[in-house]
Each structure stands twice: as structure tokens, then as C-alpha cells.
Amino acid sequence: MEIIDAHVHFDDPRFDGRRRGLWEEARNVGVRAMVVPGVATPDWPRTRTVCALFPSCHPCYGIHPWHVRQHAERELALLEEWVARERPVAVGECGLDRLRPAFERQVELFRAQIALARAHALPLVIHAVRALDEVIAELRRGGHHEGMVHAFAGSREQARRLLDLGFALSFGGAVTRERNTRVRGVAAWAPDDAILVETDAPDLPPEGRRGELNRPAWITGVLATLALLRDGTVEALAHRTAGNARRLFRLDARDHSSRGSSL
Predict the structure, then answer these.
(1) What is the DSSP letter of 190?
(2) Which domains does the chain show, CATH number per domain?
(3) Which residues of 8-35 are buried (b: 16+ CB within 10 A; e: fewer)?
(4) Does position 27 have pLDDT exceeding 60, yes or no?
């Protein structure tokens, strides 16, 4: 069985000292690749290092909406340099978050990253918290229709609008919680060719693990829930979502040995 974790912060310092064991644990349950988003300029070298040490990890570089206040125009120029030089699988994690300050600045940086992804023909990895309508509007405005919304938490109508734009929906720990009926309903309904699975580890652990540090191997809980909701098997869903991730991030075309600069 092949599983691809479409969104995992495997470079997070909370994994230091145990990363090798967690990687092997994930491999043992079938995780064959992980997509690792970058969130801020100081962290990109760490993201690159971890992904070089673990060839099944594929880096993205972006500016997360939580970190927009520490980024000016020179950081946007730096991001363009990193994307051009390092050849990541996507631009991100970027997006909009209504629970965080400086929303207008978030929009400015999101627009710039949409344009960057379009210029380099790369998918976007999008964070959207209580701002999906605004995200959809910016995607339409930017004219770049390739990427994923991670930890999708919107309505079926919002999901349909994203699908119409060509975006995939990624589901993680939230879908394992019975009270999240709206997300579970979208997860049951979404087309086979537009869904991904993720952990967002070390955050957002699945039901039964709340309060613990999430880990990549626990993606099996997400798959089990989705298989139940979609009346399928874990194996078939793993195969489908892995294929979707490989296609979106062009993983089959990547040669790890030729990725960007050396450490």
C-alpha cells in the first residue's frame, strides 16, 4: 500500500531527535512520500535540509499568513530566488486566516505568491481559516488554477467552487471527529480525483490522539475514516489519494539527486 502525506511539517523542531524513528514508523505503515511546506524565510533552509536527508520528503517554500508581519518586499524577492533555484514541488504554505492580524497584508502576500506559482507553473499549498470565500476570490483574480487547500473545513458549495477552479481538497485529523459533520459530509461527497490525505503533523492529531504530538504514521486513521465515509477500502483510497498527490506535485518526474543546491 502506498500512502502520500500531502501536508506534514516534518521539519518542525518538535521532531528533533526522533525524526528518523518517526520516518521509519511511517514507512512501515505505507507512507511512501511526504510533502513538507515552508512557512517563513528563516525556516526554509531547515525545510531543505530535512527533505535532503529524507529523500521521500518533498519541499515547498512559501510565506504562511501567520508570519506575514515579519516579511517585507525583500523576502518576496528571496522567495522567488528560492523557488527558481531549489525547484520545490509547490509554492506554500500560503493563504489567508481571519483569526490572525494584518489581514490586508496577508492578502498582499497571498496575491504575490499566486503570481509566483503561476510564473513557475507550480501548484499552491493553501491555508484558509474562515477566509475561504476570500481565498477563492483571490484565486480567480490571480488566474492560477492548480493546487490544494489543506485541512479543508468549508462547505460543499465552497468545495464545489474550488473544484471548478481545478483545486484539490486535502483532509486530515479534523475529518476523524464525529462532531465535524460539515467536513465529513464534504469528504464523503468530493470526487475521487480531487481528494488528498494529510496529517499536518505535529499538529491536528486524529480522534483518540488529541493532546498528543501528531505523527506521520497516524495518517492511517484519516484514511480509515475517509474509507468509512466513502464506503470504500483503505487500500483503494490510499491508492487513489497517492495517485492524486503524485499528479498534483509531479512527484514521478522528480529526481531527488538533482534538487537545487547542496546542504
Answers:
(1) S
(2) 3-258 (3.20.20.140)
(3) bbbbbeebeeebeebbeebeeebbbbbb
(4) yes
